[in-house]
Amino acid sequence: MQHLVNAISLGFVFGLVAVGYALVYGVVKLVNFAHGDVFMMGAYMMFYASVLFGFPWLAAVIFGIALTALLGVGIEKVAYRPLRKYPRINSLVSSIGMSFLLQNFAVVVFGGIQRSFPVPEMMKKTIILGEVRIQSVSIYTIIFSILVVLLLTFILQKTRIGLAMRILSTDFETARLMGINVDRTISFTFALGSALAAVSAVFYALRYPQIFPFMGQYPGSRAFIAAVVGGIGSIKGALVGGFLLGMLTVLLPAAFPEYSGYREALIFALLVIVLVFKPNGLFGQEVGEKA
Amino acid sequence: MLEITDLHVHYGGIHAIKGISMKVEEGQIISLIGANGAGKSTTLRTICGLKEATKGSIKYEGVELTKLDTSQIVKRGITMVPEGRRIFPNLSVYENLMAGAYLRKEREEVKKDIDYVYGLFPVLKEREAQRAGTLSGGEQQMLAIGRALMSKPRLLLFDEPSLGLAPVIVKEVFQMIKRIHSEGVTIFLVEQNAYEALKLCDYAYVLETGTIVLQGTGKQLLEDERVRKAYLGG
To answer: Which of B47, B78, B90, B158 to mutate to test the interface with A (most CBs of A within 10 A)?
Structure first.
């Protein structure tokens, strides 16, 4: 039971990062390899807001989320927008470059040593229910992740900008014909995706409170796998993929401690199996549709 | 209403439109006919601002369109029913119509116009909540027209509305164009189906490899020897 709660909450963390990938990929068809590093920047911004400027914890988190959203918008303006009219591979390479840039920027400016992310007291508690011990942070992660997903669904399904994003994801040119401002909609998409990265960074850092410049790589690559397994571009798929990965990461070592060394191998095996049998991922859209 | 003067358009090194001039008067139906690759679609796309002009001017009620972006052009009352319909297959029929009204703020008016479109095409009302990708080709064309109407256009451009549709449906589409026209919308029609297009229009232009080779009223062109040979099968 406690492993299950743990797995679900880690699954949500991976899932939220994966949703960020999926959101950006769905709209601009770009695999944003810098996403994991945007996640890292989010954690640092909260760290500095709290430790350096002495913001209260919640204010620091909100400040970090807002700043990370701005960072995402900036990255798109500088690194992807000028390349939009060229083949997609150019933006892809640019995103890898952006990933290295952010990591090295963090090493130089923030320093290579690990810092402790501030964890408020209420998140440190352990809830004991008979035999079961649950960390309160897991519960918070699950509750807030569900709220975030609901909010995101609301934005995508019920708001004007959400409609614009969904239209853009199928057809740029016809979107323009509807009068949609393509640049602004893409900026918003990056803001949303980066804000999601920052939100997941909070939960990740609460769970593993050591932050360092390369901290984005592990969850970034896991989330990327989650997004691909789920069907890249699909929000639902990203969440399910994140869940599967969270389960594998936590439940496997718990159930079969002697095999825990094979965890990473199993994750990649899952990726290969899914891609062999469902090349578009579990919830991926078929390519090519009726005209 | 719309005046195109000495318009040139390039695709990379290809000179697709080589200095055409034409005029659309308010309340008319204008047809542009020609073979594949003559530059018909390019002309429409340039009017909407989807393609940049290299030279020349497009004036709409005195405003130069070549410098505006598409959303500003749509705001001024021009829109297009694109070739191949280009509906949004993953969105519901209703959402497709709302997409057409994207720039409009007046909710009440938009609601009225949705009802108006449902009145024109009752089948869309029946399938309101269905994914647009599941509609038949003819229904998708109706949806594309309905979506264009949702922006309340005063000048409506049609790019090959009959392409890939069964003859019965083609007839319906042309009837619908006539009906929309009778309600005060100016029509600019690009077609390969020259006979229908010429029958319908007030004035027509014939485009060949980027140049206008002939123009006249629909009736004149229907009787023209060259048009009969090249576009009407003798």
So the answer is: B90
